[in-house]
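Here's what a typical entry looks like (Endonuclease/exonuclease/phosphatase domain-containing protein):
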Amino acid sequence: MDKNSKAKNNNSNSTEEEIKILQWNIRGIQSNFLELQVLVAEQQPQIICLQETKLNANKQKDIKQYVNYSKAAEPSQTNSAGGITTYINNTITQSEIKINQNLNIIVTKITTNKTITICNMYLPPNTLTRTEEILKILNDLPKPLILIGDFNGHSHLWGNKRTNLQGKCIEEIITQGDIHPINKAYWPHTFS
């Protein structure tokens, strides 16, 4: 997935409208907040999806003119990071779709010319991913759906040299969930 994706909102009864989405595994929002603010000012995305914010429930960061939907980091023995945030520009009609599960996932619904579900997900590395649980969540969500995040899945299908267990899980989710990836094998997998 990339830091700056565009999804076109097509509706035959209205003019075409672009939705700009900024996605970033920020690896700590406190230490990268200034860079995030610069990116937001330059790119002016309507939606920002961040993973590994490393924030607890009492230390969320707000961005002017954006509504903040956050799930706090829950450190464990295998993952000292975690935490995700979705920011949506306050000019967009929006609401959160609550999901009862233990995954790092935030689901929001936006309406511009068309209603779209945005699913921001973080799957920590070296953890057992529950393919069936993720598929059930995705199948139950309103369509159209944009699934965006850091899945820590490596696969030959999207240009990695090796396939790991997370990658196999994501391959199954793509196949069984009728999902169409927008990333390309030649896009960089990591940004600095």
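Residues 1-14 have pLDDT under 50 and may be disordered.

More examples are in the samples folder.
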